């Protein structure tokens, strides 16, 4: 069974239009897996058929219909699947095609997107940008749960400052999701932690780096090495800056010296 993504834009919105398309699919023995509106005046469908000939015949017929304009007909990409599932497309940067943008109201879509990435095999380096308390770490953890993967913090400020210097048991597994805070790791003076990060980066596994722009400042990596960059904002026009984050980090470290120590394994 082959799966295909079909998207069309309505040219003449008349009663029974969707029924006509569904009837045509039925006559050609093509199953509709999922259907949803994906944009203003656009509808997307995930289709499934036993062979390509059925899909080719369908494409040929609908391309002659005056009431709709076919906008996409292809093997489904991840963005297509999520668009049908959630009713809208993920926003993508026009200049940098590996950068995807979300706002806090879209946390469900973000978690679903990352979970699908986490289910894929092999190495993947993912950077996530965003201001404090926007939901970065929580989204990564939720996506790990959704993907049925174990997550391992190498550095974090989620509860208290966490700086790991070693892993134990099955934590050093290719199947785990490794999470680190680029600001915490960049400011760490613990050589054991930095060595652990270097070892983890060599694993053929999925790594998620919060604040990737800060992480690359004292590492051998560049932004070009990241497979995906995710930006999460409270509002669409929010500016992501690092001055406040570094100041918060310095205050956290000062608190640790005064007796509020973080975890250091």
Automatic annotation (TrEMBL):
Domain DUF3388: 70-254
Highest taxon, organism lineage: Bacteria
SUPFAM superfamilies, A to Z: ACT-like
One Pfam family hit: DUF3388
Coiled coil: none
Protein name: DUF3388 domain-containing protein
Species of provenance: Paenisporosarcina quisquiliarum
């Amino acid at each position: 069974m082959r799966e295909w993504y079909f998207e069309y834009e309505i040219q003449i919105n008349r009663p029974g239009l969707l029924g006509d398309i569904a009837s045509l699919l039925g006559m050609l023995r093509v199953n509709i897996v999922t259907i949803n509106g994906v944009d203003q005046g656009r509808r997307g469908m995930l289709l499934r058929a036993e062979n390509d000939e059925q899909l080719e015949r369908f494409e040929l017929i609908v391309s002659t219909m005056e009431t709709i304009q076919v906008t996409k007909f292809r093997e489904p990409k991840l963005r297509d699947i999520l668009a049908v599932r959630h009713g809208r497309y993920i926003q993508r940067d026009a200049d940098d095609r590996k950068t995807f943008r979300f706002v806090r109201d879209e946390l469900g879509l973000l978690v679903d997107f990352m979970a699908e990435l986490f289910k894929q095999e092999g190495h993947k380096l993912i950077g996530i940008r965003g201001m404090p308390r926007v939901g970065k770490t929580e989204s990564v953890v939720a996506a790990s749960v959704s993907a049925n993967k174990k997550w391992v913090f190498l550095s974090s400020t989620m509860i208290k400052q966490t700086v790991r210097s070693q892993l134990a048991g099955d934590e050093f597994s290719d199947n785990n999701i490794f999470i680190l805070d680029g600001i915490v790791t960049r400011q760490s003076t613990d050589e054991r932690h930095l060595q652990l990060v270097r070892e983890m980066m060599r694993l053929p596994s999925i790594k998620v780096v919060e604040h990737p722009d800060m992480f690359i400042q004292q590492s051998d990596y560049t932004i070009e090495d990241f497979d995906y960059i995710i930006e999460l904002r409270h509002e669409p026009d929010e500016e992501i800056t690092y001055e406040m984050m570094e100041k918060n980090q310095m205050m956290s470290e000062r608190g640790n010296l005064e007796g509020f120590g973080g975890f250091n394994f």
